[in-house]
Design brief:
The longest helix has 24 residues. The protein has 286 residues and is an alpha+beta fold. Helices cover 44% and strands 21% of the residues.
Amino acid sequence: MREIIYNFWSQRDPARPFNLIMAGVSYCDHTYAIERPSSESYSFEYVIRGRGRLDIDGQTVYPCANDVYLFWKGSRHRYAANPEDPWVKIWAVFDGPLAAALFANYLPPDTCLVKDCNILPFMEEWVRMAGRAATKPSGREGEREPDPAAGYDAVHDASSVLALRIMLRLREHLARPAELPAQMKNWLDLRVEKKVRLEDMARDFHYSKNRLIQVFKEAYGLTPYAYVKSQKLRLARQYLTDTGLSVGEIASRLSFADAQYFADCFKAETGLTPTAYRAERTQPAE
């Protein structure tokens, strides 16, 4: 097993609202297991890859890649990497009244695991910052301690900001599942005249494309692509009846590949070509 550890334990100051205690990366092996009867601090641990088990205050969860597990101060827990697929994880340990306030105000009580929530950029930034400040070897392999000349106050300030950013990300993620399909539908509706890419949706919602397709289909019975295509064709009917735009102009406005593809899609949906639909809907009354 190999670990990179930046240790700021000796620099704790009770007068500070937030103290970074340790940060690092653990490349676990089949022997990795830790048990604490009562945690002395708070922490975020993000699983980069691998699997494992966490028993905490009567709950049992199984953190795996792209999950975040959290330790509240005072929690009783035991956690261990899966021997056949051990964790690689990045983590930060911290304490102070600001840390307590963040956990109490931004997380539902007893939250110990947030599934499929990518906070890796924040954690990498945190570990890089700790590494820049911790420049002195501690005497233990792979571990370094703070250099007083680096100024721990700056590390504390930056750490508190990162902790808040991570908390906001976790809160947003936890609040999203019940509302996610409606949010996706609104996202698609706002882009009905644009070329919609699931890669863009995945980036904006911080989920994989496959997960977004699954969630949307469970809620609405069709894929995001099928939904936005149907919305484009509904708007096309409006353009055909209420404007003088040509079929080619409508196809272009709605980001179809070309007028022929638009016409084919329109006929498959309505049974009429765009020209025939317009003629049927706009002929003067006798």
